[in-house]
Structures are given as C-alpha cells and as structure tokens.
Amino acid sequence: MSENRDWPEHVDEIIEEFIDCFDSMERFELLFEYAKKHPFPLHIDDWNDENMVHGCQSRAHVTCVTDSEGKILVSGGADAQIVQGLMAISSFAINGQSPEAVAEHDPKYIEAMGLSQILTPSRANGFMNMITKIKKTAQAMLE
Amino acid sequence: MDYDVEAIRSHFPILERILPNGKQLVYFDNAATTQKPLVVIDAMSDFYKNYHANAHRANHTLADESTAALEGARDKISLFFGASESSMIYTGGATEAMNLIAYGWARYNLEEGDVVVTTEMEHHANIVPWQELSKDIGIELRFVPFDNEARKLDYGALEVAAKGASLVCAGHVSNVLGVRNDVERIIKIAHSNGARVALDSAQGAPHEKINFDGLGADFCAIAGHKMAGPTGIGCLLVKADALAEMGPFLTGGSIITSVTTEGTQFLDGYSMFETGTPRMAEAIGWRAAVEWLEENINFHDAHEHIHNIASWMSNEMEKIPGITIFGAPGRDDGVGVVSFLHESILAQDMGYLLDAGGFAIRTGTHCAQPLLEAMGVASTNRASIWIYNTMEEAEAFIVHLRDIVNRFA
Predict the structure, then answer these.
(1) What interhelical angle do B280-296 and B38-46 show, nearest 10?
(2) Whether the Cβ atoms of residue B90 and residue B113 lie closer than 8 Å to each other
(3) Residue B266 and residue B248 in contact, taking contact as beta carbons nearer than 8 Å
(4) Is residue B213 classed exposed, middle or buried when 0-12, 13-18 and 19+ CB atoms within 10 A define those classes?
(5) How many CB atoms lie under 10 A from the CB of residue A82?
(6) Of A28, A80, A124, which has the smallest distance from its Cβ to B346's Cβ?
(7) Interval B116-149: pLDDT, tens
(8) DSSP readout, A11-57?
(9) Which residues in chain B have their CB less than 8 angstroms from residue A86's CB?
(10) What is the Cα gyration radius of chain A?
C-alpha cells in the first residue's frame, strides 16, 4: 500500500478488500457488510438532535468522545447502509487517534477504496458532514 | 409515422456519456432537469462568441443584436406557450416565478384575512412563498389534501377550500408522482368562486403544449431547463388584467422611467419585473430549445412514448418483491414518473446502487415534504422519463433493479 498514506496502517487492509472488488456493485456489497460490523454503533435510542449529522437524506448520528487515554472514540448510527458502512470504516480509521490528528483528518482512504463518488460535495450526501462534525468536535477538545 | 427515438437521441450528445465506472449513462432524472440538444448549446456558445453585449443599454451594434435576440426570444417563447409577448416575464425559473406571484401580485392585492389556496401535492416553491406572505401580511393559507387512496388531489375538498378565496395555486403535474392535476377543473372551480388561478407548470410544460390564453389561468410559472432549455431561465405568464394589478418585486436598474432622491417611477408591463442584466444567453438558449421542440417533437406522440415506458416500468417493478409504487404511472393522468421505494433498501442507498449501474434517478423528498408526509413516507426514489428515453433503457433498469434487490435486500 502507498507509503504516502494519510491513514493508519490497519486501514490498508480494508482498502485492499475494496480494490479487489470486481465492480462498484461489489464495493457497495462490501460496504453493506461493513455497515453490519461497525465497531462502536450508536444505538438508535441515543440518536438525538445534538448528534444528528445534517445534510443526510437519511438519518445519521455521530458522537465523538475521548477514552481514558485521551484518544478519540467515534460512534455512529445511520439508517442508510452506505452511510453506516462509511461510518464504520471511518471509525476504524479515526478511533484511537489523538484529538490533534483527528482535527486534521482527511478521509482520502475512501477515494483509495474506489468510492470517490461518495465524496462529492452534494448536499444529499452526509458523509463529509459527518467527518466535519467529528473534526470540529476534536478541534473543540483542543481549545 | 412512428416515434423515432433514436433520431431524437442523436441531438443530445450527453446521452452517449460513459460514466467513470464504465457504465453507459441512462438518464432518468428528467423531472429534476432535462438534457440539452446540441442546438441549444450552440446557440448560447454563438451568442458568447459573436454578439455578446448587455441588452437594453447601449447604442452599439453588439448591444442592438443582443437586445434583438433577447426580445426575439420572448416573442418566440411566448408564442410557443400560446401567449402574447406582453404577458411573459422572464424569471430565473419556476421558483422565482412563483415568488413573483406572491410578492408582485398577492402582496399588492391581498390583505389580512384574504385566502390563498394551495395543495398538499405542491413543490415547496408553491408553499413556502405563501407561508412567508402569511407571516408578512396575514393571509389565510388553506391546503387542499392529497387523496392518498385515489392518488390524486381531493377535488371535493378544493371546492370547499376555494369558497371565498382570492387565489388558488396548484401544480400542473406533481413532481413526485407525475400525476397531472385536472387543471381545467381547478381553473373552473377557482374562477367560479371569484379567485384568480396560478399554475406551477414546471412539470407540465415539458409534457404538453401549453396554450396559456386558451387555458384560462391567470398566472403560469414555467422553467426552461425542464424542457431542453438552459438552467437559470423561466417565465411567468400573466393575463393582462392581472399584470395591470402587479407591482415591483425585485427592484433596481432597467425597470424604471426615472429615479430621484425622492422616489422612483417604474416602467409598465413585464419591463417592471426584469431588473438587472437580462438573462440573454439563457433566453437565446431557451428559444433554440422551443424551436427544436417545435421542429422535432409532436407532444402527443411523445407523451404516448413516455407513458408507455413509465407504465411498463411500473408494472415490472410491482413484480419485484418489496417494491411499492407511488402515484399511478399507468393511469391516463400519469406523466412519465415512477416513484417507488423498496421495503428494506433505503432511498439514499438505492440511488447509489442504481448509479453503480449507470442509472441516474432522484432520491429524497423532492422538495415536496407535505406530500410525502401525506403519503406516510420519508423519501422516495423517482425515475422520470422524457422524450429521448427508450424502452431498452427501461428494460436494462429493471434488470439492474432486480439485481440490486437480489443482492442487497
């Protein structure tokens, strides 16, 4: 995997899985699988206005806290499986990092996975808004 | 003569597009905006290359040519819609046209307690201006319900709501369902109650030849980009007596006879409403679009073609487990839209999965949240068909949709 990577090494494994997909339909199938294995899903009972991600056609919520070692822990929940899958992969990329690193987080790994259309600045897409929300929360932790 | 869809497609270069994932584009998002024939692109390019200048302002050759093109386009476009050129106001689109009715007519003619009737089936462009005006001057806003079972407007409720109303505003064709409202009946009900009638024809104009003078509506809002024209232009058609009752909306240069520090005198007629630099390139492009439509499209045949595709798609989709169709694409009042949902695949996911196959559709609330609430859903997927779509595209869509349901449901 690229030595110029901007993401933790263990995300390479996920990228490889996506690169190995035959086409975008297979990539979406894989994304649906990741949606089911979010490491820290946010239970629907905890979805509220405060943790809502704006700009999603569907409902999406994210929380961002620090663990006992001061590292970031992101939880997410979305009813759209593609958004939930992206949230899961972002959690793998973000969790365990310092607030400083997360405040500068760039989800380039999504592009490397062949899902660049997800990153379009369409208002219909809440993924980038979710990343922005996480980054802002991390930034606020530093202030 | 048979409807020659391949001949029509040959005018639209974008339909040849291969998407980054290697898939052939199938464009089923026509209710959002239609693609443009080459003549429209060329007409706008020719303007910018050869005679671009600001219209109505200067005494040089280019300005004369630009002015002639702008006003020539008004003559042609108004004629296409069966209206006189003096009754056509250029706007940025149908939304601006609806706002112009609210702020250029209703604000000058209605007062607290006067009644404006709209419906649950409307695009937000025919709801929000009235809600804002209600806050401003205290008009009473009445909503005619959507009959969810019959999948059409509740005309009995309209008869009641129109009593004592000053204005009835209704969509010509629902952008969510593709159901054509009985606009002739709406006009009759409104006028028999002494109310003026405003039609939001953004979705109607692409599918039927509007004869504004014959139709009898007082106002008609149209968007150029939904009928092969460029974005950024539309019009409000206004009956002469209603136009005489209107006052300025957006103000500034170009619409005045004099401005002093004491006040402003405005021009009469449509000129009062076209402030700022006119939409010259867009008007020229729109003219090219209506001329192209006149030369190449028989609206009756086109409607039949579109209706056949939408009806077939709807029938096939109903056979796919978990799919629900909204609206009634196969009914006589169906106008080329198939709005649908799958019970377990969210609309947003469905949009991406269809895109993976090259199919461009719309997902979401379609700027019509009250209608979706009346239907009891948060969003839908909408495939909208227009003159250049083919049955082969529809067949490929169904194959891909079946594949999606098999793999992701």
Answers:
(1) 150
(2) no
(3) yes
(4) middle
(5) 26
(6) A80
(7) 999 999 999 999 999 999 999 999 999 999 999 9
(8) HHHHHHHHHTSSSHHHHHHHHHHHHHT-SSBPPGGG--STTBPTT-S
(9) none
(10) 14
Task: Provide the token pair at A44.
Answer: 């629907």
For tokens 């600001």, what's the residue? B54
Nearest-CA distance B293 → chain A (Å)? 31
Residues in chain A: 143
Domain range annotation of chain B: 5-30+298-408, 41-295
Q: Which helix (H) or strand (E) holds B235?
A: strand B234-238
User: Considering just the CA atoms, what is the radius of gyration of chain B in Å?
Assistant: 22
Q: How far apart are CA B47 and CA B230, in angstroms?
A: 14
Domain A11-142: assigned CATH number: 3.90.1010.10
Residue pair B215/B187 in contact (Cβ under 8 Å)? The answer is yes
Q: Which residues of B touch A28 (CB under 8 A)?
A: 352-353, 356, 408
Shortest distance, CA B362 to any CA of chain A (angstroms): 10
User: Partners of B334 in the beta sheet?
Assistant: B179
Task: ipTM value, please give it.
Answer: 0.86
For chain A, say whether B408 makes contact (Cβ under 8 Å): yes
Residue-range domain boundaries for chain A: 11-142
CATH of domain B41-295: 3.40.640.10
A:B CB pairs within 8 Å: 50
Q: Point out the least confidently predicted range of A35-44, A93-102, B16-25, B28-37.
A: A35-44
For residue B38, the cross-strand partners are none
Superfamily in which the B5-30+298-408 domain is placed by CATH = Aspartate Aminotransferase, domain 1 (3.90.1150.10)
Strand duo B88-91 + B234-238: pairing: antiparallel
Read off the amino acid at residue B345: I
The token duo for A73 is 């822990």
**Most B CBs within 10 Å, among A24, A117, A129, to test the B interface:** A24
Chain B residues close to A57, C-beta within 8 Å: 347-348, 363-365, 379
Distance of alpha carbon B265 from alpha carbon B255, whole angstroms: 9
Q: Is the pLDDT of residue A117 over 80?
A: no
B367 flagged as catalytic: yes
> What CA–CA distance (Å, rounded) separates B55 from B70?
7
